[in-house]
Amino acid sequence: MIPTRPPFLESARRFLQHHARQLGVIAAAGWVAAIAVSCASTVTRTVVMPPSISGASYVGTESCAQCHEQINKHFGSSAHATLIARGPNAVNVGCESCHGPASVHVESGGAAKTVVNPQRNPESCFECHANLRGQFALVNSHPVMDGRMGCGTCHDPHRGGAHKAGGTQLLAENDNCLQCHPAQRGPHVFEHEALREGCVTCHHPHGSVNQRMLSERGAILCLKCHFQQQSAPGRIAIGTIDHSTFLSRGTCWSAGCHEAVHGSQVSSSLRF
Ligand code: HEC
Ligand code: HEC
Ligand code: HEC
Ligand code: HEC
Ligand code: HEC
Ligand code: HEC
Ligand code: HEC
Predict the structure, then answer these.
(1) What value does the mean pLDDT take over residues 75-96?
(2) What are the boundaries of each domain within the chain?
(3) Any ligand 5 atom below 6 A from CB of 182
């Protein structure tokens, strides 16, 4: 007697024979999906996880006060004080939103390399200010990504307005720039009043596609304040002088024109 296969096995065999190709595809797709998912999770982690010390957990802003009393005391006045929140779910905001989980640091009594310092690695700033990663990657940018300076060089993370030497003082923000760029300081016999508006009227301090981190390319930079007036057809007056033939020859600060954009010792029309 020939043993008969149970009918459900028989139909399963037929099903497999019939759909072998599709199943292969499905199995392959499953693998691809599994690999894709595992890649995606690894990749996302490295991109969005804030820098942190392995094995550390969050301890909360109050626990920093025992040893960093001065910083905690003034932190309420800082632009980032808005990060502080209360309650059991808010333990990771405050100091540790920039410095990462700090339990290992606290337990070790402040041992070296147990806490993130954003001055050496700006990644924790980019977690919230994500647009700036791109700006600092531009060819013309301050050397923050290679660690030659940090965000803290120009920003005060712990106290007052976030801009160093900012506040209400006239020119104060420029002073921070002038520490490293003394050539632009003056005093100049012929000042360029534009500098009173701040270096940032013409420069993007984080980075720019334009050379010298300029905010605009070419004559547009100057024309945003020095309007062009068409006094007669084909005649463009800037100041009282017809510039119509000059504008096509190069930038306003080309040799022979207003090279001394930051101020001049010899000429009221800003020349060297
Ligand atoms: C038990 C004392 C203690 C506590 C609590 C403590 N620290 Fe520190 N911390 C230190 C010591 C000591 C240093 C090294 C000397 C210094 O810079 O003051 C330090 C240094 C640091 C540094 C600089 C590290 C570097 O590599 O440049 C940071 C950032 C820091 N602490 C953040 C925190 C934060 C945030 C907290 C709260 C979550 C905290 N600390 C709590 C003792 C402490
Ligand atoms: C907005 C991000 C941010 C927050 C929030 C923040 N810090 Fe900092 N912290 C920095 C940066 C940036 C530096 C490096 C500054 C520098 O070197 O000029 C720094 C440096 C430090 C240092 C070492 C240098 C120093 O000034 O002694 C300590 C200690 C420190 N922070 C503690 C704290 C404590 C405590 C808190 C909460 C009360 C806190 N930080 C909140 C960004 C932050
Ligand atoms: C957890 C999110 C978070 C992190 C991390 C963070 N910031 Fe901020 N930052 C904010 C918020 C929110 C504001 C707006 C505060 C306000 O306007 O009241 C702000 C404001 C600022 C400002 C002021 C902008 C202005 O308009 O004047 C500067 C500068 C700044 N952050 C720099 C930094 C730097 C540098 C770091 C890293 C050391 C950093 N931030 C890390 C959330 C963050
Ligand atoms: C060379 C000085 C300098 C450095 C370095 C610098 N900044 Fe700034 N940053 C400025 C100035 C100046 C402004 C004000 C710009 C303006 O008013 O147009 C500013 C504005 C900001 C603002 C508010 C406006 C905006 O663009 O969103 C944030 C946030 C900020 N900076 C974060 C950062 C972070 C994060 C870093 C480090 C990765 C950093 N800055 C490094 C000078 C600097
Ligand atoms: C801590 C010192 C420091 C501070 C503060 C600083 N800079 Fe710079 N700046 C540098 C360095 C370093 C470079 C890069 C020079 C290089 O790459 O050779 C640079 C480059 C520049 C350049 C481009 C120069 C060139 O030859 O291409 C401009 C423009 C500039 N900074 C403007 C500013 C402005 C505006 C501020 C204030 C918001 C400022 N800097 C604050 C150190 C500083
Ligand atoms: C009216 C616009 C304007 C303002 C305001 C301005 N700059 Fe410039 N800056 C320029 C231009 C244009 C250049 C390019 C000059 C060149 O390539 O010959 C430049 C170039 C520079 C350079 C590169 C070195 C050089 O002189 O060519 C530095 C550094 C610099 N500026 C810093 C500053 C600082 C610091 C401030 C604020 C105190 C400032 N600038 C304000 C327009 C301006
Ligand atoms: C933020 C506005 C602003 C920007 C941008 C600006 N200037 Fe000026 N500039 C002024 C002001 C204000 C004066 C003084 C009033 C006047 O003479 O129009 C002035 C004066 C001058 C003068 C002297 C005019 C004279 O004969 O007394 C020259 C030359 C000049 N600017 C050239 C430039 C050049 C070149 C640029 C572009 C790199 C530029 N300016 C960008 C505001 C600006």
Answers:
(1) 87
(2) 61-153, 172-264
(3) no
